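Side project, low priority. Logging it here so it doesn't get lost.
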Amino acid sequence: MAIPPPHSRQEFVLTNCQDESGTKTVYRGPTAPVSCVTVGGPGNGTVFAGSWDKAVWSWDLASQTAGRKYVGHSDFVKAVATAKLGGKDVLISGGADKKIIVWDVVSGARLHTLQDSVVNMLSVQDLVVDHAASSENEIIVISASSDPHIRRWKIRLDGWEQVLEMAPDAPGTERRTILEHETTVYKLVLDHDGDEVDLWSSSGDGTAKCLSRLRGFQADDTLHHGDHVRAVAVTDQWVITAGRDEDIKFWDRSKGTLYCTLQGHFDEVTELVVLGGVTSSKGRLCSVSIDGTVRTWPLDQAGLAGALEEQRSNPAAEDEAPKDGAGVGGGMLSVDEEAELAALMEDDDE
């Protein structure tokens, strides 16, 4: 299933990829591209979207009514996450301005602004809340950025601090960051298989890595996808990677070997999401691309075999390729926004 994006410049669309009909819900407001989305707030009833206009927008999930707008970044908002902290609903946003901001969802107050004062942190690429290490009054947030460093942050209502890691190769010494990649870290995913809840990361160095919590987030497994790996997803059976080469690769996580490669997008893949739980026999995979489509893929072996057979019988799929500017580049972005996108991608490559 491929679902084209909206072409209106004043609406943001949520597509239900678990519904074969691709039901869409429209949320109106931003006139600039939306770069990241999450759901949270009181009763998990609020949609939050970070935008190129430097703000985080919000809507009531059910009624689509616009809510509070969170303004404080000085550049594109590139990552958003939500959590419960000390009884309050909080929003965490990260931007191209190299800042992470913690907000009180209800009041809109800015609680904290997080920056690394020692190791230069570049544009924020991703944020995840580490629920396994968090408590009612203190949450742990993990950030990825355009530099190769992964950082962990300890956040309370009354303050915050950067978590110091134990250096795995130098017992008794501390390090400010987790440094396992060579360049930009695009995506972070916490594994739900096993008790350790390890951290998976994907990078511009062409790899996805499993960072072992028990070993101080040192790399346990490395998968060599090639080119820039923009996204990673994990299930009980697979590790799935995707990125600039447009391919979606399925890796057998028990063996660490490539199982198959699926093709279908015609430009860089920027996001992978597992739908319906992490059990491969029950779930599906959703992929998002700069080509302007959202696609879903099977996760069970029989479904993958069918997708591979279809791929072999129609290798070019030229009739599905966007033509004459169709997709994100044609009709959705202005000339200025195209230039901004090019500059943003150059920043990601640093």
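Brief comment: The first strand starts at residue 2 and ends at 3.
Revisit when time allows.
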